[in-house]
Write a structure and sequence with these properties.
The structure holds three protein chains of three kinds. Chain A is of the alpha/beta class. Chain A contains 14 helices and ten strands. Helices cover 77% and strands 0% of the residues of chain B. The chains are: A alpha/beta, B mainly alpha, C mainly alpha.
């Protein structure tokens, strides 16, 4: 009798594996769209809507960062059909011939994208990418706690705010702000420019900031911190929570980011992928996305469907944001940048 | 003395449960962001209920953890017993190798396994995730069983063999029951480790085998919305509690 | 029929027959396939040139050279320090708990064990976020301190609980406590009551009985617990950066960063290989010395 118990325990995992394998083989019969994107960044209703309309099921695989996406894509180039890279990553992928060109004839709704979001430097001609959502990185201030005017990075990184600042945890971001403060173009990253902004960064790091890209909101909400430089999406959520959180684009200069939809060159379902991308470009679908993510929607037709509150959110649609720089791929300079930031961050 | 120990133990328990209780309480908080209480609501649970991707992830996590734990127990107990019982050449080297998965940084293990599976042409999915989990879990089971083995009376096995048992029977009838507390301790550790594993899982999973940690970690990292984390966590704890209590009840039944 | 003999005295392990070898082969096979080979792949990568998400198959020691330049040696040092401190704290806090559980009745024992494990059934990231909420400026702990007037009587209003070294340690200990408790429990549970009675009969007081008899017998459990806490804790990531607001970054964080966001897999591999080498070497030497000492005892 006692022998049977270990046997039962052995059967369990075997069944588990068998059960899963079976579902995989029936799935292979129909074509399934392999979506590889940031988690929850494409609303489930949008996905379900597409499947209902076209009968094409979608498998949604997720990744935490662009670089993590690149790792898996490089190792499995023919597995994914739609990916969601950010601006500089698109440029990176194009240079390595990892993206499939998009056929504008299969994307009738592409015209919904506003002019300011078309033909961007990382993909002039929108040959390989379609903008999904855009945003900026800017200054958020708890106007209840801080009455002095905060207009730019220099106002934020002052000695009197030591231990009161929260920033995104991205070495390239901080260096970019230092470059903007020094009046250097943000994509001009060389050992010389890095050396020029190093003293500024050393001073900034001495202010004991909180570094958190994933969720900078809690310290601001709990009064552990009073101001910071964060993504507009988080700032917009803070604004929605309480209008005391004001969003300001730094006077020295700001940059915007664009997340895009692309098709990997190795995709086996390119036609279905294009259909999906076109579906996302429809105004009512794009509006659905804006409802969930208060970023800057590049879809003009969708913007017409947004509520006044949404359009009035200064973090989602900051005034004067049309002429902003965008990250370009900086190649090997990124290693120098990271080394320098690593050294500065660990110096205590 | 006993009271002091009991008091200390319950204090530690309180320490362990404090954040969990907080999670549960906040899962009913009406405000998504603020720590301040703004009314009781069940809407987060509704969000979870309707999020089929999330529910699938929870199922996968429990399934994978169970499978990985079972295989880890087998491998871990095997390893502990073999090292104890026999003199293999290069014991130190073997033991070092066995404990290595404990130290390898998760990202290194994840990327290397992904590249390895790709090199041998194995598709990423449930099987690869389970293999990965077993690999870093079973050393923990081994260590737990070894601690138990250290106190094994050598006479036990000798006595069984004197009574005519083969080494295999001696093992299953005499040694194994003695090892059970160590095995259970190891199994619990393995189960927990597997449930919580994100980095290695990320590199070895595919869409159908997404686990809860993958869903949670990527949601927090990325631009997307938080999938009602407090509600999910509370549900998960409740689910695991039920599982643990149930398995314990089953385990006790055949004792008649 | 079998050439295997049972263990008759400590240290006289028998040579394995075919049964032993075939079982060993399963184990070895698993290890080679899923530990050795993948690690070798990344060892090779660590000699490539990396950066910006690319991997250039050139042979270079540059990555390893970088590991020995500032700030990385200090980062390694701090990681070991935090891991050691965490292990010590876990042992101090966990031993009494494991002892109490091990000496309880079987019914209570099982209940307590389950109670210990259940909080760990959720993502450690979530648990960490819960701690951040607890310790934040308008969190529960601050609220209690204010309500009991400990603020402003003893502590200042701008007391910083979160984003400190202390908060990092709290969550580290919290995360690893079960890994210490469970192995020690395994040792305690099999304590032979008669040994303890014998010690008492020979006139030893409870303190002597503990230090002379009980504690030494539970040492294997403590050693196993120390191993299971210290070793993984050195490679710990995420908890440290979250609880310190990104101000404390240990080697695990650094490796994770380089391999993922940093886009420099070769350098991340190099850091990882050094970590691995540090551990493998010290563990191997420790085991050899341990085996040698045992052999000495046999003479």
């Amino acid at each position: 009798m006692k022998i049977f118990r270990p046997l039962i325990l052995l059967i369990l995992p075997a069944l588990a594996i068998l059960g899963c394998d079976r579902s995989k083989s029936t799935a292979a019969a129909k074509s399934r769209l392999q979506l590889f994107a940031f988690s929850s960044y494409i609303p489930q209703e949008a996905i379900d809507g597409f499947t209902r309309e076209t009968g094409i099921p979608i498998d949604y695989e997720v990744y935490p960062t662009n670089e993590a996406m690149l790792q898996k894509l490089s190792a499995n180039p023919d597995h994914y059909d739609v990916i969601q890279p950010s601006d500089y990553m698109v440029e990176h992928l194009v240079a390595r011939h990892m993206l499939a060109p998009l056929d504008p004839h299969q994307l009738p709704h592409l015209e919904n994208i506003l002019g300011e979001f078309r033909g961007l430097p990382f993909d002039p001609g929108n040959q390989f990418s379609v903008p999904y959502m855009a945003g900026t990185v800017g200054i958020v201030v708890n106007s209840d706690k801080i009455k002095a005017p905060i207009r730019g990075y220099k106002d934020v990184f002052q000695e009197k705010y030591k231990g009161r600042i929260v920033v995104v945890d991205d070495p390239r971001e901080m260096v970019t702000w230092a470059l903007e403060t020094a009046g250097i173009p943000i994509n001009d990253v060389t050992p010389q420019t890095l050396a020029r902004v190093k003293p500024t960064l050393v001073e900034w790091v001495k202010l004991k900031n909180i570094y958190n890209s994933d969720d900078p909101k809690p310290p601001l909400l709990s009064d552990d911190r009073d101001l910071g430089v964060i993504y507009c999406g988080d700032a917009a959520a803070l604004w929605q929570e309480n209008h005391k959180f004001k969003y300001v684009l730094p006077a020295e200069g700001a940059h915007r980011f664009i997340d895009n939809l692309c098709i990997p060159a190795g995709s086996k379902h390119k036609a279905e992928a294009m259909a999906f991308i076109d579906y996302i470009l429809r105004p009512e679908v794009s509006k659905m996305i804006s409802d969930k993510f208060p970023y800057t929607n590049p879809n003009g037709a969708a913007r017409k469907l947004l509520s006044k509150d949404q359009l009035d959110n200064p973090a989602s649609y900051p005034p004067g944001s049309a002429k902003l720089e965008i990250f370009r791929a900086i190649g090997k300079a990124s290693v120098d940048l990271q080394d320098m930031m690593s050294e500065i961050r660990h110096a205590d | 003395m006993k009271h002091l120990l009991a008091g200390w133990t319950y204090a530690v328990m309180a320490f362990l449960y404090l954040p969990i209780v907080l999670l549960a309480v906040y899962s009913f908080n009406n405000s998504p962001l603020s720590i301040l209480w703004s009314g009781f609501t069940l809407r987060w649970y509704a969000v979870v209920w309707h999020d089929s991707l999330l529910i699938g992830a929870i199922e996968n996590s429990l399934l994978i953890a169970t499978a990985a734990t079972v295989i880890s127990v087998i491998l871990g107990t095997l390893a502990a017993w073999l090292l104890y019982r026999y003199k293999f050449p290069g014991t130190a080297a073997t033991y070092t190798l066995l404990v290595t998965p404990m130290i390898i940084p998760e990202v290194i293990m994840g990327v290397s396994l992904m590249l390895f599976f790709r090199a041998i042409g194995m598709e990423l999915g449930f099987v690869t995730v389970i293999i990965a989990h077993v690999t870093f879990c079973f050393p923990f089971v081994m260590a737990a069983v070894q601690a138990r083995l250290a106190g094994l009376d050598p006479a036990m096995e000798e006595a069984a063999m004197d009574l005519g048992a083969t080494p295999a029977r001696a093992f299953f009838r005499v040694i194994l029951p003695y090892l059970t507390p160590g095995i259970i301790a190891g199994a619990m550790l393995a189960f927990t480790l597997s449930l919580d594993e994100f980095v290695v899982t990320y590199f070895t999973y595919d869409a159908r085998s997404m686990t809860l940690p993958v869903r949670i970690y990527t949601a927090i990292h990325g631009a997307g919305a938080r999938p009602a984390l407090n509600a999910v966590s509370t549900l998960f704890i409740v689910a695991t509690a039920i599982l643990v209590v149930a398995s314990d009840a089953i385990r006790r039944k055949p004792k008649q | 029929m079998s050439r295997e003999t049972p263990i008759t005295s400590a240290g006289s392990l028998s040579r394995p027959a075919w049964r032993g070898w075939s079982l060993f082969a399963i184990l070895a096979g698993w290890l080679i396939l899923f530990v050795v080979l993948p690690t070798l792949i990344l060892l090779v990568y660590s000699f490539f040139r990396g950066g910006n998400g690319e991997v250039e198959p050139a042979f270079t020691f540059a990555n390893y050279a970088k590991c020995f330049r500032a700030p990385y040696p200090a980062v390694f040092g701090w990681s070991l320090a935090y891991a050691a401190l965490t292990t010590a704290l876990c042992a101090l806090i966990g031993y009494p708990v494991a002892f109490y559980i091990g000496r309880s009745s079987p019914a209570r024992r099982n209940r307590l064990l389950m109670l210990i494990m259940i909080p760990f059934a959720t993502s450690f990231l979530i648990r960490t976020y819960a701690w951040m909420t607890l310790l934040s400026h308008d969190g529960l702990v601050m609220y209690l301190l204010r309500v009991t007037h400990l603020i402003p009587l003893i502590f200042p209003e701008n007391l910083q609980l979160l984003y400190t070294n202390g908060s990092v340690l709290i969550v580290l200990v919290y995360s690893y406590l079960p890994f210490m408790i469970l192995p020690i429990y395994g040792s305690v549970e099999k304590l032979d009551e008669s040994l303890i009675e014998a010690a008492a009969d020979l006139g030893a007081g409870p303190f002597r009985a503990f230090t002379g008899v009980i504690f030494p017998l539970t040492l294997p459990g403590v050693a196993a617990g120390a191993l299971m806490v210290f070793v993984p804790a050195v490679a710990m990531f995420a908890v440290t950066t979250l609880m310190s607001g990104g101000n404390i970054r240990l080697i695990g964080d650094e490796i994770e960063f380089q391999c993922l966001e940093g886009g420099n897999l070769p350098f991340g591999s190099a850091l990882g290989m050094i970590l691995l080498a540090m551990f493998v070497l010290s563990f191997f030497l420790f085991m050899r010395r341990g085996a040698g000492a045992k052999a000495d005892m046999m003479r």
